[in-house]
Amino acid sequence: MNDLLPQDSAHWEWLESRVRALMQAYAYRQIRTPIVEPTALFVRGLGEVTDIVEKEMYAFEDRLNGEQLTLRPEATAGVVRAVVEHNLLYDGGKRLYYMGPMFRHERPQRGRYRQFHQMGAEALGFAGPEVDAELILMAHRLWHSLGLRDVRLEINSLGQADERAAHRQALIAHLEAHADLLDEDARRRLHSNPLRILDTKNPAMQACVEAAPRLLDFLGEASRAHFQTVLSILEANGVAYRINPRLVRGMDYYNLTVFEFVTERLGSQGTICGGGRYDDLIVQIGGKPAPAVGWALGVERVMELLKEEGVLPAAPVPDAYAIVPDSSALSTVFRVLETLRGQGVRVQMHASVAEGMGSMKSQFKKADQSGARFALIFGGDELARGEVTVKALRDGAGAQETLPLEQASAWAKRLQSND
Ligand code: ATP
Ligand code: MG
Which CATH architecture has domain 6-159+219-309? Predict the structure, then answer.
């Protein structure tokens, strides 16, 4: 679990604002659900025989009332619970998004943490393939708006429960024939959840998994048509994809379309976003049947990729740094700075480590380090004349002008209109 320090949090805020704008562009609205939910929600929702439920959940007993609780390992189950609890689908489908921390007790490594963060979108109450496509297009647009070029889309269809049941027989037969290649997890899951074995991270099992019967070959006509429509919309919109018949995702709640956005630039933690359709989850959680589809991106991995591709924006800096040689001027200085801030100018006021304001030299040094474009110099002579000196520190560095204090507002407007 990591602390997020100002240098990085500026980048997180930037990503958050991009994602908010994206969600607004597609008319998705935010939902915020609790970080703690009853353990049973995840066990029922994600599936008992999944990595998350078997070994990654921070589950505990509330010592005050004995309730079994879990720090959410993902947000979809909680969103669905909230949708059901508040009957949000009473007047039709809803498009929702969220951002926040998730918790999984995994082995920490690059791109894999125990508290990590996701941003996700869910469309609930819509059955058609166009909504699957809409969600994929959204994510695709996000990578573009962030300047990420090295992201590939992998997609598959998991069909419906009866189609998976037919495939399951063939899959078990294949895996049994190669029992010597299976690891302990796989042997344990062979009869309880064989599909999960296809999601293995064990390199030694890749060949066996590659050779397994493909679920795609077991799909009926309706499932195939759904998948085909999604693919056609992607093609019509210039979104490249690769059909990956082994793509099954880590939770049991998925059906039909599943997809992941992957990159080669992050080593083995290369999946930055994953999602799919989960038409049976709402019933599973106790709601009236309603289809749904969504995705979640991993913020830490996206940040890492932004760093790798060198597309992170510069950290934000103040517009102006106020230099105040004499603390007896502070009341006037405060008045002017408050006016400027009220006009939208970002102003950092000098404050020294020790008592008193510090030398002009040290104040100029701080002004420079702050990255501000201008120094506002509230010198004794200037203030005696009711003026302030504005000195450029970046573009045209050194140029300066002296303004009457009453014209601070006019200067702020000028600054804004030049931006
Ligand atoms: P993986 O296969 O890498 O374990 P997952 O299938 O468990 O991922 P999801 O549950 O689909 O992941 O979560 C969506 C995204 O959240 C992932 O694609 C990834 O970017 C991110 N993510 C998942 N687990 C972690 C983690 N422990 N630390 C950081 N990011 C994570
Ligand atoms: Mg995982």
Answer: 2-Layer Sandwich (3.30)
